Amino acid sequence: MRPSDVQTAVKMHECFKCGARVEDAAPGRCEECGGELLHLGRSRDL
After folding, report:
1. Which has the least CB within 10 A, 6, 12, 15, 36?
2. CB burial class (10 A; 0-12, 13-18, 19+) of residue 4?
3. InterPro entries in the record, alphabetically (predicted)?
C-alpha cells in the first residue's frame, strides 16, 4: 500500500521532551517545558 501523497495545510510541531503537539507554531521552544519543537511533516533519522 502506498502512503498518502495528500498534504494538509496544517503544520504540526511536536515537543521532543514532553510530546506536546502545537498547530501552526513557529519553530522554536515548547511553551510547556521549553523543549525543542520538531516539525512532524519533515523526515528525520530515528
Report:
1. 6
2. exposed
3. DUF7129
Which residues in 6-41 are b (16+ Cβ under 10 Å) and which e? eeeeeeebbbeeeeeebeebeeeebeeeeeebeeee
Pairing mode, strands 12-15 and 21-23: antiparallel
- Cα separation, 9 vs 7, whole angstroms: 7
- For the chain, percent of residues with pLDDT exceeding 90: 15
* CA pseudo-torsion sign 32, 20, 25, 16: positive
User: What is the distance between the alpha carbons of residues 15 and 11, in angstroms, rounded to a whole number?
Assistant: 13
